[in-house]
Amino acid sequence: MSASQVVVVGYGMAGARLAEEVRRRDPEGARVALTVIGAEDHPAYNRVLLSSVLAGSLSPEAVRLHDDGWADRQRVDLRTGTAVRRIDVGSRKLELADGAVLGYDVLVLATGSRAWVPPTDGLLDGTGTPADGVAVFRTLDDCRRILTRARAGAPVAVLGGGLLGLEAARGLAGRGHPVTVIHPVGHLMERQLDAGCGRVLARTLARLGIAVRLNVTAQRYAPGRGLVLSDGGELPAELVVVSAGVRAETGLATAAGLAVDRGVLVDDELRTSDPQVRAIGDCAQHAGTVGGLVQPAWDQAAVLADLLTGADPAARYRGTPVVTRLKARDVDLAALGEVHVDVDEPDAEVLCLQDPARGRYAKLVLRDERVAGAIVLGAPDAAATITQLYDAGTPAPSDRLALLLGRALPSGAPTSPADLPASAVVCRCNTVSKGQLMTAWRAGARGASGLAAATRASTGCGGCAESLQGIADWLARVDPDEEPAVPRPAVS
């Protein structure tokens, strides 16, 4: 029986993870012959860590997901710097920009999303690209453009007070730029935060040199001068960074006649309206998915790999409970589940603790004694415990105040790294489990720094650094004398 010809359009985080998951289940390529097409010239990279590149704490090379020899080792026909021109679902073929035509048995769309630029006069030039002095924040190349154009100490305006906008603002402020965030809503990160936490977050950012202008939009941009705002004010800015949201890349799907709404519509098997075409990641629209986050894409990749290789024909994607973390130096913020619940809602127990002077805010939403949602700013211990409760679905401790202060442990919680199951996720940013850390240790990675280098654990928001150190210390005790193999960076 010949291998199924699977073509993946998109070599971002979703497409790269799918290729890894397929090869974990089919290492010799006996069941799946895999071709991956990427429009960008360079290897796949971790978009979650781009704010660290912007801040200068990580190099572009450090966020790469694959080395130069990965495709050959994994039996993947990888074509980078290549765009897909057209998909013909009738003949199951796709045409590339260089004229090549590829056939497929199964096509996977992992085309991601693109930055949305608001209709502000002057932001785009006559060709529809960002004008001189304007840059979007979405890709590794965007980071390079921002750093090239940001003259040392020059004022910067960031359009958008969402997750990515604030990460960009913090990175540039850390490089010494006076930064002002322009946000059209009444508080920051309104999708993930309530108004109370938004206010505390704005105060925290102000102490870090980031000014915030709320309920205003940019009306006009003048190169070299700055922005004219909707309230009549002017904001000097030598560089404007646009992070005002994203839109799913659905152009190929629409042209091919596939069903598209905000994204390419998919079912629990990640099938589009054509059963031979699947879609995952930011370009896909599934009822249980929150767009714009990486965890759903990786969960979808695992399910689809099970289906494509036959490893688990019953695998289905049912949605992803998402924990959002703001990855910005000196700001520890986590939000999960139901956050927009009022304290007087009859079917929920809602607790709130505010300490604006010290940059702390905690909101906890409980239903049937279990965590249904939370916002935690400036209290990493509380965030870790609440996230663990949320993931496990176990009852919350009766001492709610101790939980909000980070002084309570979940009932039956592991008291040491030895008690954690191998499947326990230690690093959410890079989806690194305890089992992966143990595998990296046995391959020669030593200490917390060695494990971080091999798996990228703790290189995102840094919130798992203490847990990583605990696991490294435990491994050193239980496996101290094993002769290490030659270390090789692990695929995260």
Automatic annotation (TrEMBL):
Protein's name according to its UniProt entry: Assimilatory nitrate reductase electron transfer subunit
Organism, scientific name: Streptoalloteichus tenebrarius (strain ATCC 17920 / DSM 40477 / JCM 4838 / CBS 697.72 / NBRC 16177 / NCIMB 11028 / NRRL B-12390 / A12253. 1 / ISP 5477)
UniProt record similarity statement: Belongs to the nitrite and sulfite reductase 4Fe-4S domain family.
Keywords: FAD, Flavoprotein, Heme, Iron, Iron-sulfur, Metal-binding, Oxidoreductase
Every FAD/NAD(P)-binding domain range: 5-301
Record domain NADH-rubredoxin oxidoreductase C-terminal: where: 323-389
Cofactor: [4Fe-4S] cluster; FAD; siroheme
Keyword Transferase part of the UniProt annotation: no
